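Feature request, filed as a ticket because there's no other form

It would be nice if the structure record came with a short human-readable summary line next to the tokens. Right now we just get the raw output. Example of a typical job, pasted below so the devs can see what we mean:
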Amino acid sequence: QVQLVESGGGLVQPGGSLTLSCAASGSIFSILLMGWYRQAPGKQRELVAVITSGASTSYTDSVKGRFTISRDNAKNTVYLQMNSLKPEDTAVYYCNANLLRAAISIPGTYWGQGTQVTVSS
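Raw output as currently delivered:
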């Protein structure tokens, strides 16, 4: 079993900051890629940011310069530091991990349960 547990969501005013965390636990050999997605009401889930095991990162254009993704490989944890938040950042944020459960295995994709981020005055 593999579990991804997110924390850190909440209500914040425009221009404010939040940090999301996601810890992966269970039968994990190696985490190849970790990322954050979000889904706003009535919209499709979209990729926000990803980070490889070697700490290479990629961001969707709308968050570049405002959000920072990082990871602690020893703790199997990924973070999303969100600054200068805007109302359009309001969404449920989901953690995602692509990982190996054994040295020789097919990578699997796992999701967290989601955490609500609301940006409003």
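Something like this underneath would help us a lot:
DSSP finds no helices and eleven strands in the chain.
The mean pLDDT is 96.
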